[in-house]
Fold these 3 entries.
Entry 1:
Amino acid sequence: MEDVDPLGTRPTVVQIEDLTRWNLTALLETRENENNSEDFHPFPWRNDLNAKIILWCGDVTTLDVHAIVHSTNEKLNDKSIETETLYAKAGQELVDEIRNNVRICKTGEAKLTKGHKLLARYVLHTVGPRYNVKYITAAESALYSCYRNVMQLVRENSIKSVALYPIHSTKRSYPVNEGAHLAIRTIRRFLEKYGDDIETIIFCCNEESIDAYLKILPLYFPRNETEERIAVTELPLDIGNEDGEPVIPERQIRIMDKPTLAAMRKSSLEGFEETVDLNKEFATSTIVEVGRHPFAKMEENPDTHKKSHMYGKTTDEQREQDNKRRYERYLKRAKTEDLTDIAALKCLYRTGTDKFGRPVIVFVGKFFPVNTVDLEKAFLYLIRVLEPIVEKDYVVVYFHTQSTAENHPTMNYLKNAYCVLDEKYKKNLKAFYVVHPTWWSKLTTWYFTTFTASDLKNKVYNLKGVQYLYGTISPDQLDVPSFVINYDTEINGFRYYVPPEQEEATGL
């Protein structure tokens, strides 16, 4: 397709009229009555929105549009081919305007200047975040702010056509696929609200990003009914809120009555909750009183509540049905997709049974490469392994042995995965053994089982050695990696005594 061919020869000026709109890149199908109207489609097929989208590969400065986006650094002097080309074509006037009027642009902000000698009337400068696996949520929030602030300027200045170059850059270590998901869904949500204010949005790619956009764009802008149904099964766990903003439950804040008393009451946690943002460099906490004041209870969106009753269902019932449908979609994918690369990691497998006849699932933390593995496929593999056994009681053994920060998924990922899993996974889990825990793993477990999975709190057991498992799981029923045995022998000795009361404490 000429519009996305990275090797094609480009003219000096590229007119919008010469580019193919997204709605015309596939043969449209007629909607049929056989479509299941009960299915939930977060990004339904809308031909009117697709007609505003263009996917194109080339030099953004050659596009004859009202505005182009310039992804740069805080001082707007990024040493990249895109920045150098932009300044060369815009002339000294743009450099002078930036030096005199803009000067600096902070991460997540967007600043508008004239285009001067460019074909575009305006340039929208913005600074994408640096990506660090320790602060993923901060990077996601900053990147969302970039796109949101750019589109705000577009709307405020009555810009009808804009070319969006990817703000997330590999130069700042931001993964291409994750950045594309956030960018496209934010634009989708913007068009749903303000589509009448803009005529054309061009996703302008290069050789590095074009494949990701070709793969991900149909998930948020499906071009027909079939593509819409497929998209529902392939969307990531976090699809953002109604604006496309990443949902970060850990940052929800409720206000207590008479907050000045919080410090005096901090020593007692009864009747209180502690909200901790583990994704910040410095953890902060807010003590909030539960259920003591009407303002401490968050009311539902009245429109959502009204809508649920219009369809004869309470909000809880509707949420339960939505969760069930979502899990069924993941289950279908887990049964059909090729997950051999995840299986090859040998980080999750079924072993024997415990002394009560309950199947045992083993997870080896050290073998789980969070930074390189496809987390979506890892979640599908989890469903594939557990689905056959969760109809009845089962137990999980997690070897935390010698795992590092490179093996720990984010709290947000864990919460989303937990919320998607069917209720039987939580109800029938009878014990979760953490072998060789660390201070950090204990803190994480406490936080997760306090604020997200309180029903699992009494099912988690921290064990300092493998032999503490033998009170409920016979050695011949447990497949333990050799490095775990070696480490256990090193810190606990070849054999060590397990008190009877400790054995009793590890079983249900």
Entry 2:
Amino acid sequence: MFSYLHRYHAGCFADIHKHLVLLGILQSLQKKATPFCVLDSHAGEGVYDLNSVESRKTAEHLQGIHKLWNIKEPIDLVKDFLEIVGSYNKVGEHRYYPGSPAIMSQMLRSHDVGIFVEKHPQAITALRAFSRRQNKKIRVHERDSLEAIKALVPFTEKRGLIFIDPSYEVKTEYVSIIETVQSAYQRFTQGIFAVWYPILTEGYHENLLRQLKKTGIKEIFQCEWSPHPEEPQGMIGSGMVIINSPWQLDVSLENTFKSLNKTLFTHGQYKQGWLYV
């Protein structure tokens, strides 16, 4: 039942994509003084040790964060991201990678709230330990992710982000996640919803996009990054869809990933656009 642990994949190229998007959204939320809330529906462990047995077994971070550590003149969003990553490491150390709760924790102000949801018994233990060390308003929930979205949205804070980053090990998630998003959006139309999906050679994500278009929600921003499109199988890219995307986030992301493709991922492909019903 609890087979997926993100520590095997921490710092991979998909993490780079989703976490740069996440940081861009959080920076936009910070531009207003009023409090916001962020809900991380599949929070994971908080921070990951890239020297762990699990991480070394797959070594996926070598094609992700490891490459970014070698960039000489990073574009603004990448620079800000690397500063957050660096804050979890000693000077000159490249060992720890912050997951989405760690990035969110860095961006929460004293009056903002973070809600981290996780169900895996190993991950929730690590997440609780991480959260206790943060001097922020953080609530950790051990419960089903989609049930938590139904129960906890909308927020008292009136504005915020629902960040949804599943493993998709259960293929029915491609449908159930969009059903949950549609229901939550009807209760919280001003909220930002960000949903990550893997781009696999099998094309499972196409069903998710079809279901999303059927919801009737208009002007959904979509971006996809494939730093290694030549891969013959498996995950060849990373995708995000964002409902109520902040103003000019699209410009920032396009500049960011085109810069990464030019400097580090010379065969990389990036595309973005808007989904309309």
Entry 3:
Amino acid sequence: MASTMKAAVFVGINQPLQIEELLMPEPMDGEVLIQVAACGVCHTDLHVILGDVNFPTPAVLGHEISGTIAKIGPHVEGFTIGQRVVSSFIMPCGTCEYCQSGRDDMCEKFFSLNRLKGQLYDGQTRLFRPDGSPVWMYSMGGLAEYAVVPVTDVFPLPDAVALDEAAILGCAVFTAYGAVRHAADLHAGDTVAIVATGGVGLNAIQWAKTFGASQIIALDIDHDKLDLAKTMGATHAVHVEDDPIAKVKALTFGKGVDVAIEALGSTQTFSLASELVRDGGRVIVVGIAKSGLTAPVELQRVVRRGLQIIGSYGARVRTDMPKIIQLTASGQMNYKQSITEAFSLEQADEAYTALRNRQIKGRAIVRMMR
């Protein structure tokens, strides 16, 4: 194995990602080294690049990956070198109170160490420049040729699932599953509105279809995205500048939808989602917003009309990822159609520029071409 690898390094707010040679990372106790096949391009990374979310530099971003196992650390069983695997963006420690109670989507160490400091759970990074200086990890630091991942977040990938495309199972598909299955508690026959139809929104449409929603109404500012949403299972598409509240009410006999999923993270999309639900309806907030951003909500309506506002960060890693993989392998989830662009590692900065400029219709991936 080589002594170095290529990675796209985030060096500062609003600065281009730089392709650098980093030392080959080494898996420690309970970890594996994955040779990355592909990494998804997510808005959450873009928030870091733009300074909307604080994160230390230098760092390697990228948090939804697929690949093959290149090396196995101590005390890891059940995996083999060369095995095809996929990982979610949430990497559970497996030992904190939330992990032990079945809510590993709320893992304390993931938030306090990884999301705030760019470290794994011994308080250290696995990434270093050739001079020995540390490079921090956003999740596993997937915008690189290799990534170290705790074994709690490594899942076998069946041959029926294409390796590169499987990368988006770890965030876009995973996040959408958590929103629809757990936060929304969707039942067959429910009506659903998806506000913002990017990578997560498109896959929320697919999960809503899988779980039996009777109406799936896609809302976006981009006509091309709405066209793609209809091909992925939306029963109706509404442009947000075309009196969307009246349109959705008309489609639901004046009542509004049972569930509205907000998948962007802005004051405007949250406010719109909250106006689309019927009395007793559920507003599921998925999109990551800029730190400190707030949005108004009418408290009397929350109380008197039973409006439910539920945050959803992701699915349950260790229980849901195997189900997600099984459902996609069996063809019940057409996630592939949401992948609309692909870039090479050397083009990683171009990918996020395109995302910032709203030029990516669905989800883009970065392929680690060697």
